[in-house]
Input
Amino acid sequence: MHTRQTAKGVDLTGAKTSGRVWLAALLAALGTFIFVWLLSPGLRSDMVQVAHFLSALDVAALRDWILSFGAFSPIVYFLVVVAQVILSPIPAGPVTFAGAMIFGVSQ
Output
């Protein structure tokens, strides 16, 4: 009986505590990235170059790159679309148009 009360008193799986830990970890990671970005001109210029490269995507080049994976092209296209949702500098237009050129459009 004593062990049941002890087990009930130590509940570390509560949703509020878990959510707070994730929020604290996310804020710490974001704060670290911002701190490093502000102190590193090299990182800033690299990020600007990546954003410029992604904004200048060519539909034909993207189509050729996806088709270069052969039978795995649908999987690669899916991963590119997922990356497009997660990473905001990837524009949706060229990715969607390249997918329509590769796989066609629904009738």
